[in-house]
Amino acid sequence: EVQLLESGGGLVQPGGSLRLSCAASGFAFSSYSMSWVRQAPGKGLEWISAITSGSATTYFADSVKGRFTISRDNSKNTLYLQMNSLRAEDTAVYFCAEHTSRWTWGYWGQGTLVTVSS
Amino acid sequence: DIQMTQSPSSLSASVGDRVTITCRASQNISAYLNWYQQTPGKAPKLLIYAASSLHSGVPSRFTGSGSGTDFTLTISTMQPEDFATYYCQQSYSSPLTFGGGTKVEIK
């Protein structure tokens, strides 16, 4: 059974940093690209970043480019999102998701809440 | 960036109704269109990929159609578990973008 488990969310002050993790199991993690998708409270879904299976290529939405970094450790079956210079508008539930096929997310984690507030 | 526009933003339906949701892309995306279902407090679930292919385990009452810029998700016979919010998403190019969502409520 495919499982994705996010962790690392919490309350952080504006300008602060946070690192999210996504532990994967039940599939060949090292063979799949992965993404982070977020959802602000009461709002829709927003894709923010992706990384290819071997980490060769990363992608970012303009809203987070230059502030967020995506990485992965295939030996630990774990995906990361390093978030710096956090803003109030980054407050959201952050989901990790597996690329079942081209830019298509067949499996999602349960999400972790990030709250940016003073 | 490719803009995705869903309509309606919400609708009311009864169990047994046929429901249709539309999604329009701001440019030609061929068949690179996915549909997701989300219930409150839960992660989205993939329903349809490549515009019309049913994801594993998804009931056959869900169908997708369309290509180019205009797409449709149809639920042939609403079941109680289908009351949720539905999102379209283009998988044509980065940045990946979603429609604004369609909330399907019980009438």
How is this structure best described in words?
The complex is a heterodimer of chains A (118) and B (107). Chain A has 118 residues and is mostly beta strands. Chain A has strands at 3-7, 10-12, 18-25, 34-39, 45-51, 58-60, 68-73, 78-83, 92-101, 104-108, 112-116. Chain A has no helices and 11 strands. The radius of gyration of chain A is 13 Å and the shape is globular. Chain B is mostly beta strands. The chains are: A mainly beta (118), B mainly beta (107). The interface between A and B is medium-sized, with 22 and 25 residues.
Give the SSE map:
The complex is a heterodimer of chains A (118) and B (107).
Chain A: E1 3-7, E2 10-12, E3 18-25, E4 34-39, E5 45-51, E6 58-60, E7 68-73, E8 78-83, E9 92-101, E10 104-108, E11 112-116
Parallel strand pairs in A: 2-11
Antiparallel strand pairs in A: 1-3, 3-8, 4-5, 4-9, 5-6, 7-8, 9-10, 9-11
Chain B: E1 4-7, E2 10-13, E3 19-25, E4 33-38, E5 45-49, E6 53-54, E7 62-67, E8 70-75, E9 85-90, E10 97-98, E11 102-106
Parallel strand pairs in B: 2-11
Antiparallel strand pairs in B: 1-3, 3-8, 4-5, 4-9, 5-6, 7-8, 9-10, 9-11
Straight-line distance between termini of chain A? 40 Å
Approximate shape of chain B: globular
Write the H/E string of chain A, N to C.
EEEEEEEEEEE
Number of helices of chain A: 0
Biggest sheet character of chain A: 7 strands, mixed
- Beta strand % of chain B: over 45%
Radius of gyration of chain B: 13 Å
Q: Which chain pair has the greatest contact?
A: A-B, 22 and 25 residues
What percent of residues of chain B adopt helix (DSSP H or I)? under 10%
| Class per helix and strand makeup of chain A | mainly beta
DSSP strand tally of chain A: 11
Tell me, briefly, the overall form of chain A.
globular
Q: With helices defined by DSSP (H or I, 4 residues minimum), what is the helix count of chain B?
A: 0
The biggest beta sheet of chain B, please? 7 strands, mixed
Q: SSE string of chain B, helix = H, strand = E?
A: EEEEEEEEEEE
